Amino acid sequence: MRRVKDFMTPASRCVTASTDSALESVVHSMVYDSSVGCVVVLDPNGDGTPRGIITKSDALEWFLQRIPLETTCALVMNANVTCASPMMTAEEVGALLTRKRVHHLAVTDDDGAFAGVASSWDVARECGRRWTLPFWDEYLERVASRRRAGSSNAHTDAAASA
C-alpha cells in the first residue's frame, strides 16, 4: 500500500511564502507562476513548520472582499493547518481531508518540518489508480491471449468481450 510520501507534491516543488509576504506576491505565484491550488506559509525565522495555508478559494474571497494586496499572509492565512505524516495511507489522508473539510494539507516530517502537500485530487488520483489497475491488468491479459491465439485485431476483440 502506497503512502502519502509516494504521491504528495514534495516541498521542493511546492509554492511557499513567509508570514510577512504580501498577498500580491502570493496570488501572483498561485495564478501566474505555478498554477497551484495552495501556498504553504512558513515563518521566515522559524524551523520550517507550516504556520498557515492559503488556497485559491481564499484568494477569491479576498478579491470579493477587496482585501488590499499589501496585506501580509499572517493577517489572512488559515492558521489551522491540517497536517499529515508522510507514512499515512491514501485512505487515512482521504479520511482526514474529509473530516477537516479541507482540500489541501501539509505533510510534515517527524520534527514538524514541511515536507510537502497532498490534496484531495492527489488522493482521488491515487485511489482511482488502484481501482482501475485490476481492470487494465485483466484487459491487457485478454489482448495478449488473443494475440497468442492469432487474432489480427486483438485490441478490438478484447474490447468487445469486456
From TrEMBL:
SUPFAM superfamilies: CBS-domain pair. Transmembrane segments: none annotated. Keywords: CBS domain. Residues 8-69, 77-133 form the CBS domain. This is CBS domain-containing protein. Pfam families: CBS. The keyword Transferase does not apply. It comes from Ostreococcus tauri (Marine green alga).
